[in-house]
Amino acid sequence: MKRTIFALILACSTLALSAQGTIKVNYKGAKPSISDFAWAVLSMDENSEEVDFVESRNAVKQAWIRHQKGLAQEKGVTLTIDEKNGYVLYESKDGEYTLQVEMCYWNEADGKHKLFAYKTESFLNGMRPEPGQYDGLVFYRYDNATKKMTICEAGIDVEYVNISYALPRSGKDITVTRWNSNGTTKKQTLKWNGHGFN
Asked: Coil, helix or strand for 54?
């Protein structure tokens, strides 16, 4: 029952996201970087109904601000910003609980768009997924002409029960791990097709 309610809340949140407008991406230079995409999402108006993951997003935003100011991160927090590979990883560990946020983007085959992903996952006991209220995998399509991104589908039916997603730091594919009740796992690769995933 709890999982069904969680799935319903997540579906409603996704619908609310798609109903809200666009996100402007500000950048300097010829094209936006992972930092530009990440900051566009992290700095959205917290009073907006545009996102339902405000609390976890705010934790990442505070870590980002500390990074920008050259300050050490709080205890248990790490923030990795890999501009070259277009990847960001935020982790916050507190005892057996780990909150992980990943962001990355792909250049689409048409040369006119980019696909940006924002993933939040909660883990317990050795990285076994334990979905929390803010967990989710959201995709945004960035339009080079308008410099805006909107929430979109990417060809993935995202599931959250006993499944975790690893966004690529290198390469282009997403790794899906299915966690079985006996403790074993099964991995699957979602292949990038130039517009989404197969």
From this structure: helix
